[in-house]
Design brief:
4 copies of one chain form a homotetramer. Chain A has one domain: 4-Layer Sandwich (Chorismate synthase, AroC fold). Chain A is built from 9 helices and 16 strands. The first copy, chain A, has helices at 33-44, 52-55, 114-121, 127-133, 138-154, 172-184, 214-223, 244-247, 317-339; strands at 6-10, 17-23, 61-64, 66-67, 70-71, 76-81, 158-165, 191-198, 228-233, 251-254, 257-260, 268-269, 272-273, 278-284, 295-298, 303-306. In chain A, helix 1 runs antiparallel to helix 9, helix 3 crosses helix 4 and helix 7 (214-223) runs antiparallel to helix 9 (317-339). In chain A, 61% of the residues are buried. The model of chain A has no long low-confidence stretch (mean pLDDT 95). Chains in contact: A-B, A-C, A-D, B-C, B-D, C-D. The interface between A and C is medium-sized, with 18 and 18 residues. Strand 9 (228-233) of chain A pairs antiparallel with strand 9 of chain B.
Chain lengths: 345, 345, 345, 345
């Protein structure tokens, strides 16, 4: 499918930096770096985060595509330097002569890319895989999404996220209690949340070819977040137990305009936005690195062992919701750029 | 992202035919048209289907890309002729001089593309939208998926679907009772099912860039089926209430090979297949055309009215599962063609 | 790169039909089938064509995407049936049980895809390759290009082609003499021509990323015509022997508007249209099937032999120019659709 | 079309740095930074270059995707810092508060993107366009191409370029005389050269669909170099005046293998490599910035004026040939990665 808003990202968890190049933006878009950095900060916050988050405050540097605060049409490059790189320079060196076994890693961690990635790319030291598969790379995706959000704002689109459930907890207080309990037992938690984009024009996406459906494109963008295991629209997760007469959102007139009293469809009909709020529900799995070790296999000698413990987050649902917002923003920005003449704004 | 298995489909619900062109297949692949037609038949079956399904038995004709039963490397064209076209020739004519208001359609049907599509494409007669947004077009997608499945079979991959829930029903008998009840009241039902692909190689997809994640690509393929509102992997829909120590699939050794006792991940870790069964759970919404009419708006005079009743299916979960299988097959075929040298097989 | 005007084509030279699906067209575009067929006719004409052209008068049938003479947003399918298929049904059968050696072909023809294609796709009977590599497939590309031209016309764009040289001939009379002479000796000829698109808006294409440059995209579209071996813009083919002060097109004002007295750049600066005529020069190689046989190799027993003689065109420059026009039209249509809001026109 | 070797580049001529992200490389490829830097140096050399080239010695830094000298499967990021950035920090600042008119630029330079770019992107200060359209950006493309060349080397592919003509000069001595003469008169020169890739496997590209033809893809890659105005294969530029019996490369046997005595086709038949040397001929236009000023228009007040003089190269054919090599390398690398299983090497 065509991508007018296209981008590539790169960078390893402990490498020098994360980088993104965004190609296709119109000229004249104001780029508010404070907003980008506030999004990066949101990603690092949330109850249940461990210590690593405290030492790193991510900020994005723009090194191309913007002049005097506005895009000029050329590709925008975003860089997030790793504050901790000094300590990893040797282990993450690009130079052949620096080869070392220090911090080499051989134990497959269940729930991670370690096993499949090392088979696919034929890597012995699993660090070659985990450095890229790490959730760390979502930081630069949030920066890209923040740029997309600036375009959405230009067109008046709104965005918010709400947490629905963590463990058995269904409100803020219960969330904290669930997280505290998991932390005590050295366990981890995921969660369910929804992202809502409002004031979108009618007709983003299309019914005419499957790969243009906006719900499909959003599902891809969100499901490819490593921690995400379920995506649904509106009341879609329960659609199997509701009859048609109760599920479909009837249409009424109010001051000559179409209105609805329900939004079970989550703002998407026939692969297009229908003018109602776009409601995307997401389930994040529990963090796969836990203090309570999981049984696994050591790839260096193919023996059974227990998975390493490397970091100490208990729950990262807030970060996940920021990443999901960012990815959806990219899909919507692309659609808006196709809808409106977009060489300059 | 690169697509080695690429295709376009076309055709309106009551047009002359549905067509698909598949480009990128290796030469030498045996094309079993009986298999393609049996898949088309599966799509038309299932308890709860109405009368239209009985009069049409879809068969696909291959008009290019295959010679003496095998692909020759050039694009494969599949055509499904509409058996009922004779009665629609006038209404669906491509010629300007045939313009008619017969069967013109002005009432937005909730749950369909009618409203968003007519706004987007600026169409007055909603038939211009509904003819393409109709589920009828999934027939040709099933044919494309059947070709993809032939490639998967060549590599030893297996496929099956299981129905999980329809209404409150959780087994075959209960499904039928639910459907009978809905039918009596002029209502419709959706359902929940899972598609399982087995014996896949480890490492399809990738963790290195978000748009290569296999779960994301499958989620797009399935969520873009108009009737689908929720997609999840393995036990993903419940991942918000399970702790990490209970969710992640521990790894063991058996005869020197990696084994697992659970498959909560549904066969995907880090955006790659991990050697376990690929388990995709799908929720289909109830059919939006029902005998019990929904409140809506007439676009011709912008007055409130009730939605038309056009067809009589009560439940089409079986068809939906066949379409989901087909779409997933296309994603997997693409990955297998990237993995294996694929100019000929 | 994004493609808003995207299409796939299929079909073998002696197969049942050639097919194309075009996806992405705006709704409301008038589709004049007479124009499409007149383009197909242009492709079949020209001094120097042999007998096959006489028996086939190609016409395109539209089987989807158009209703009452206008596009409706859904994919447009074009079909050109092979008038001669009856005689080839057995040799080109898709069915395994029809396998035959009749018309099997084992002698590599220099200048054709036979050798490379059979190595790549591992085909024994070269007919599996030559049926698709045949120039016959350009008929459906001309039909696709005709649809693109209808969009260009909507935006006021003009198109014409001029023949520059055939052999040593530089005008109509000399062309005919050259062709007559070649025909007598059983030889073939190519030629040089230019395609000119006028009244294009300034700024199609872009300087910001290499794959968006309009000259690059046009060069790909034209050079991929099997018979084309050289492509240049404006006076580009001679640019190596002209100094900068003589080559670059100075800018003047006339009634407050930019004007130029020269167009050595052929209407492209910095990868964008600059408001002058877009001038694409093309060199077509001589037809590789000739009565004077070429030395070659028989693939069935790997012995030296002479190439078969199958058809009798002496020169097909006119056809080639029509195909080049068509391909350029597709590139320009895509750019116009990106420039203008294009869900409906 | 699928791109397995995909990349984006960014950076302005006087910005902080040029950046490229390459996605899709197999793991295990040795990355020789000395080779990358030697390619960058080649781009800066050649008789006829002015002073700017002397102060900048480009070197690429790898900041992701490589560990201990080898790729690890994740995206590779290349950065070339601008040695002169300190002097441009203010003029090229990304910050709104630094806005300045210093070095603002209003005179359209014929032969450049200035006019079309400023119209397209609605820019007042032409610097917003020229900073990206500058040939400076080809430096990072050469770095990307160098990585592609490392992959080609792994598969045994060879590469060289030869200069064919500059002005009327046809050998090294005459080239220098032509350049000296142009320099004296304040004029500039282009040139004609050929790039030859050898030892390629048979069958890269394909005849089955137009956008897979290798000659088309190479033509795009080369023609999109801003200075290039003509591209041809083998003896293609003269194919209009040679008869078929003299043009097509006859095939013979030598020790049971296919050989040819000529290579007029330049190694491409039917859109595929045919085992002969791939010979791409390229015409570069003269540098459009010259001491002898060109007549043009001042965009700030729309009056006729003369074009600015900014740099002092007389001829940059050597640089252009290095860029052409690089771009072709990217196309070939992609094809090799599709041909061979390429997750690791």
């Amino acid at each position: 499918m065509f991508e007018k808003f296209r981008f590539l990202t790169s960078g390893e968890s402990h490498g020098k930096c994360l980088t993104a190049i965004i190609e296709g933006l119109p000229a004249g878009l104001s780029i508010d770096t404070d907003f980008i950095n506030s999004e990066l900060k949101r990603r690092q916050q949330g109850y249940g985060r461990g210590d690593r988050m405290n030492i790193e405050t991510d900020t994005a540097e723009i090194v191309s595509g913007v002049r005097f605060g506005k895009t000029i049409g050329s590709p925008v490059t975003l860089v997030i330097y790793n504050k901790d790189y000094e300590n990893w320079q040797k282990v993450m060196s690009t130079k052949a002569e620096d080869q070392t076994d220090e911090k080499a890693f051989y134990t497959y961690r269940p729930g991670h890319a370690d096993y499949a990635g090392s088979v696919k790319y034929n890597r012995h030291d699993l660090r070659d895989i985990l450095e890229r598969s790490s959730a760390r790379k979502t930081a630069i995706e949030v920066a890209v999404g923040a740029v997309a959000k600036l375009l959405l704002k230009h067109y008046g689109v709104s965005c918010k996220s709400t947490f629905l459930q963590i463990g058995q907890g269904k409100n803020e207080e219960e969330f904290r209690a669930e997280i505290d309990r998991a932390k005590e037992t050295g366990d981890t938690l995921g969660g369910k949340f929804e992202v809502i984009y409002g004031r979108l024009p009618v007709g983003l996406g299309s019914h005419v070819h499957w790969d243009r459906a906006i719900d499909g494109r959003i599902a891809q963008a969100v499901m490819s977040i490593p921690a995400v295991k379920a995506v649904s629209f509106g009341n879609g997760e329960n659609a199997y137990e509701i009859t048609g007469s109760n599920f479909h959102d009837e249409m009424f007139l109010s001051d000559g305009k179409i209105t609805r009293k329900t939004n079970n469809a989550g703002g998407v009909e026939g692969g297009m936005t229908n003018g109602e709020d776009l409601v995307v529900k997401v389930v994040m799995k529990p963090i796969p690195t836990l203090r309570t070790p999981l049984k696994t296999v050591d790839s260096s000698d193919m023996t059974e062992t227990e998975a390493h413990f490397e970091r100490s987050d208990t729950c990262a649902v807030e970060a996940c919701s920021v990443v999901a917002e960012a990815r959806i923003a990219c899909v919507l920005a692309n659609e808006l750029m196709l809808k409106f003449p977009s060489d300059s704004i």
